[in-house]
């Protein structure tokens, strides 16, 4: 990643584009490379400017944000953050499955917006403050897949389970009594074996495969911290 984080913003509301661009351009180390008013333009501009992070509105004309994310990720190493008006938008789960690293609400505070861009650019994933893994649990339960053998070792399976329940690398390391570096290695290997982009998709996989169930997840806090 470059020292300066390049950002693309796509939203069909000019006010949102201006506001987000002004906030991010005022932050050290962040630069808005382009803005788009629809999904098709977002894809074109992403391929022209190669942003580190793209903020995509879920609902846009010409091409919705989910399909725009899919097309951008086919050719770019861009990290995607979806932005939406509704905290329980039915499309959020599809966006995460499509490869988004997380999502934010349009009324996000300026400091949180900048922090989210830096978090995702650094390789972590995030969820909006009012949205927890219960959203993933609900949709994943509806799309449960038959059990499959992905070649994970017992330890990698345990790390995935703890990761999906919200554990940080440090917390998982403490529970398994190993170093944090060891957990990072396990996470990298299990992501590679499962063909997943990041920890958000690992959470989705854990629910869809039945490794984690909503009953187990019930009671987790409504934390908005990165899944790091």
TrEMBL record:
Modified residues (4-aspartylphosphate): 57
Statement: the UniProt record of this protein carries the keyword Lipid metabolism: no
Keywords: DNA-binding, Phosphoprotein, Transcription, Transcription regulation
Record bears the keyword DNA damage: no
SUPFAM superfamilies per UniProt: CheY-like
Pfam families in the cross-refs: GerE, Response_reg
Transmembrane regions: none
Residues annotated as domain Response regulatory: 6-121
Domain spans labelled HTH luxR-type: 145-210
PANTHER family: TRANSCRIPTIONAL REGULATORY PROTEIN NARL-RELATED (PTHR43214:SF24), TWO-COMPONENT RESPONSE REGULATOR (PTHR43214)
Descriptive protein name: Response regulator transcription factor
């Amino acid at each position: 990643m470059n020292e300066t984080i390049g950002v693309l913003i796509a939203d069909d509301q000019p006010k949102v584009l201006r506001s987000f661009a002004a906030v991010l351009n005022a932050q050290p180390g962040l630069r808005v490379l382009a803005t788009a008013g629809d999904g098709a333009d977002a894809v074109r501009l992403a391929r022209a400017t190669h942003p580190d992070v793209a903020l995509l509105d879920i609902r846009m004309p010409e091409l919705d944000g989910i399909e725009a994310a899919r097309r951008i990720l086919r050719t770019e190493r861009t990290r995607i953050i979806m932005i939406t008006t509704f905290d329980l938008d039915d499309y959020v789960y599809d966006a995460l499955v499509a490869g988004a690293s997380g999502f934010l609400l349009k009324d996000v505070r300026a400091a949180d917006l900048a922090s989210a861009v830096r978090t995702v650019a650094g390789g972590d994933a995030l969820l909006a403050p009012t949205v927890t893994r219960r959203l993933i649990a609900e949709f994943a339960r509806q799309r449960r897949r038959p059990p499959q053998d992905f070649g994970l070792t017992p330890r990698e399976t345990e790390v995935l389970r703890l990761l999906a329940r919200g554990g940080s690398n440090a917390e998982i390391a403490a529970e398994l009594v190993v170093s944090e570096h060891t957990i990072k290695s396990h996470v990298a290997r299990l992501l590679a074996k499962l063909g997943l982009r990041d920890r958000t998709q690992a959470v989705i996989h854990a629910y869809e495969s039945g490794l984690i169930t909503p009953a187990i997840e019930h009671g987790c806090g409504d934390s908005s911290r990165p899944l790091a």
